[in-house]
Amino acid sequence: MLGFVTIQDHAPGAGDRLLTATAERLAAAGLRLAGAVQINTEPAPGCECDMDLRILGDDGPLVRITQSLGAGSQACRLDSEALTRAVARTESVLDRGAELLIVNKFGKQECFGRGFRDTIARALAAGIPVLVHVPDEQLPGFRDFAGDMAEHVAAERIEDWCRTQLARPAA
User: Fold this and answer.
1) How far apart are CA 69 and CA 71, in angstroms?
2) Which domain holds residue 108?
3) 20 to 30 A Cα–Cα from 101, which one of 67, 122, 151, 167?
4) Residue 29 burial (CB < 10 Å; 0-12/13-18/19+)?
5) Whole-prediction pTM value?
6) What is the rounded CA–CA span in Å between residue 145 and residue 74?
7) Which long-range contacts (CB under 8 A, 24 or more apart) does 142-149 make?
8) What is the CATH number of the domain that holds 133?
């Protein structure tokens, strides 16, 4: 019940757009979703894009997960406190009863045991299917986490995979 998608289109934000569109269609069909999808704001010239998370199943504001570090900075712009807030809001939605968890990315934070990693494990333990995007560079860390429990899902089959998981009887 752990599906992961890798994106062959390496254009910036391709995975984010795919999961966002999928979540929108599934929510419009009446499915109760939890999780987060990433919205990238086009940057001003000479700047990096800002990244926000939209918490699925939550009417609250977007969560900006990047921080401005000033001109010329090469450090990671991830705001770990903001990511922690996004995770807490997602877990609140899970507590209210979600049918599917969608996570924008199994990234470096998850590989290090932080971010959405525990939320993913919690959903799986509760029998809630999980769909996550895994960038190529994070595949080894994801495989360490998931073992043989994860199923690769082709990008064009994401919605079919989700609906199949939801049609299965609870374990």
Assistant:
1) 7
2) 2-42+49-67+76-167
3) 67
4) exposed
5) 0.89
6) 29
7) 142/4, 142/106, 142/110, 142/111, 144/111, 145/106, 145/110, 145/111, 145/117, 145/120, 146/2, 146/4, 149/2, 149/124
8) 3.40.50.300
The total number of structural domains that make up the chain: 1
Angle at 119 between CA 114 and CA 120, to 5 degrees: 100
What is the length of the chain? 171
CA distance 87 to 31: 20
The residues, any chain, with a CB within 8 Å of residue 49's CB and separated by 6 or more, are 12, 13, 40, 41, 42, 43, 66
The pLDDT tens digits of the residues spanning 18-56 come to 999 999 999 999 999 999 999 877 655 555 668 889 999
The two tokens of residue 170 are 């609870």
For residue 63, what are its two tokens?
């969560």
Token pair for 81: 């406190």
